[in-house]
């Protein structure tokens, strides 16, 4: 197949972004170079004009850029000029050089090497500079120049090499040139965990979704390239270590939490290693690797919302090959004969919509990302706005003026375990929403939109999904029966109490 340079929508050439795909036992096809496009998009491939418009407003070299996960036309960039700038990209893309930025963040005393958007809160940006500081910025202001960050984290003793958030953004993991991995509370800057293990010099660190594990890449004491897996609550010793090779290029880890797949990409390498992440030993299972003679200077990925689901494309890389002055797309294809939407290879994924406002996150709230289905024409799976999270003790006092001991007695008198106050007094809309989600969705599977099965495999999948739905409905029915008995007992006790007066 031929290779081609490709002009990417929203790809400005300032840097490359990160994230990756999964394993289903049937293998992946890798497709490189040119892709079949619509007639309109076919004109967007090929060699770019050397004078193609650029984003140019920094007074020094640009060291990092990140696209806003909730706005496809906004980027943050940081530079050697010690500033961070927020750019609004026109929807018709660039007709001339873009020199007007939307906001400028001024706070670091030395050059800024990393920027990272918060994964669930809107308008929250993190930056790390060579002044050994991580700064938290709130962009939800009318000011065009922001001089004071909301928080400054000063626990690092050397240059910060990488940053990574957990799924809901309540924890921040960093690697530092002092060879330590830290897990930090990003709101207050307190170090919760710190790796003091000297057998692994970490360069990059990555949260592995909701597995409560960290993966770091770096070098061993014998200077072999190495990756290590850690328990995020105990960084005294890694769960497992694996030496890869003796090359010198930095290893960049990518993890797809939807499919539990880990990809290791080496700067200057031509290959990409595939691993499957498990919760039990062995934690990392090597699968195979993609090989190419063209070394990548950097690599980026297409967000899952931009994948071609009709051809079973589960992931798409963009390799920056400086030796040939091109960006090469590499598509990961699951070989399927059916042309219908494949629910099992496209689990619900994070949507381009924040689940928290900036002031809510700064106030101490945490929420998981809003999920969406990649089925064409589908809507968000949890698009209904959620109420603000409250501490459990405050919520209990607000909804239940009666003593906790009395509630426990009501549950135990009937011989049933008491339901939690949070579950008992849950708002009606929340109960209806959970009932509706459990009734019509099973892992994002919509029983009304599913086409009739065409093959025996699809029929078996439909049968297993229905069995799972029946099991969930039975559990829901049992919970309703327990709640009904508890309410009846509560009414009985209240009547007895009134009778005594």
TrEMBL record:
Keyword Repeat: yes
One Pfam family in the UniProt entry: WD40
Keyword Repeat attached: yes
Alphabetical keyword list: Repeat, WD repeat
Organism domain of life: Eukaryota
WD repeat windows: 55-89, 105-147, 153-185
Similarity-based family: Belongs to the WD repeat coronin family.
Protein known as: Coronin
Biological source species: Mesocricetus auratus
Lineage: Eukaryota, Metazoa, Chordata, Craniata, Vertebrata
């Amino acid at each position: 197949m031929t290779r081609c340079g490709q002009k990417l929508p929203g790809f400005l050439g300032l840097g490359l972004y990160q994230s990756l795909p999964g394993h289903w036992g049937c293998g992946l096809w890798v497709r490189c170079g040119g892709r079949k496009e619509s007639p309109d998009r076919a004109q967007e491939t090929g060699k770019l004009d050397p004078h193609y418009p650029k984003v140019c407003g920094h007074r020094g070299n640009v060291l990092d850029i990140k696209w806003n996960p909730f706005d496809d036309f906004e980027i943050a960039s940081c530079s050697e000029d010690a500033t961070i700038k927020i750019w609004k990209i026109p929807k018709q893309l660039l007709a001339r050089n873009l020199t007007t930025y939307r906001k400028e963040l001024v706070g670091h005393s030395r050059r800024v090497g990393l920027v990272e958007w918060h994964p669930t809160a809107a308008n929250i940006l993190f930056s790390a500079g060579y002044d050994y500081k991580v700064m938290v910025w709130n962009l939800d202001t009318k000011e065009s120049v922001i001089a004071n960050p909301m928080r400054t984290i000063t626990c690092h003793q050397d240059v910060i090499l990488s940053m990574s958030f957990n799924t809901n953004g309540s924890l921040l993991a960093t690697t530092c040139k002092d060879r330590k991995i830290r897990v930090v509370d990003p709101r207050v800057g307190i170090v919760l965990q710190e790796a003091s293990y000297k057998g692994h010099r970490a360069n990059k660190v990555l949260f592995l979704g909701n597995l409560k594990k960290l993966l770091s890449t770096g070098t061993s004491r014998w200077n072999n390239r190495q990756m290590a897996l850690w328990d995020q609550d105990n960084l005294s010793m890694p769960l497992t270590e694996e030496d890869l090779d003796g090359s010198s290029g930095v290893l960049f880890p990518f993890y797809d939490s939807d499919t539990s797949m880990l990809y290791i990409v080496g700067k200057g390498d031509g290959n990409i290693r595939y691993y499957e992440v498990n919760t039990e030993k062995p934690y990392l299972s090597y699968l195979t690797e993609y090989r190419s003679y063209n070394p990548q200077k950097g690599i980026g990925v297409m967000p899952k919302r931009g994948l071609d689901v009709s051809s079973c494309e589960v992931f798409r890389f963009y390799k920056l090959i400086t030796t040939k002055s091109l960006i090469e797309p590499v598509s990961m294809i699951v070989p399927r004969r059916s042309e219908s939407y494949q629910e099992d290879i496209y689990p619900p994924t994070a949507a381009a919509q924040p689940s928290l406002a900036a002031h809510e996150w700064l106030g101490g709230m945490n929420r998981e990302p809003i999920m969406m289905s990649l089925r064409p024409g589908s809507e968000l799976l949890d698009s209904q706005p959620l109420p603000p999270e409250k501490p459990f003790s405050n919520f209990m006092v607000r909804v239940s003026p009666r003593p906790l001991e009395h509630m426990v007695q009501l549950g135990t008198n009937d011989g049933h375990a008491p339901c939690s106050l949070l579950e008992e007094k849950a708002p009606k809309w929340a109960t209806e929403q959970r009932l509706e989600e459990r009734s019509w969705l099973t892992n994002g599977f919509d029983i009304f939109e599913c086409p009739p099965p065409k093959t025996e495999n699809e029929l078996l999948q439909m049968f297993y999904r229905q069995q799972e739905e029946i099991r969930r409905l039975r559990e829901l029915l049992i919970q309703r029966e327990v709640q009904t008995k508890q309410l009846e007992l509560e009414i009985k006790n209240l009547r007895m109490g009134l009778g005594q007066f």
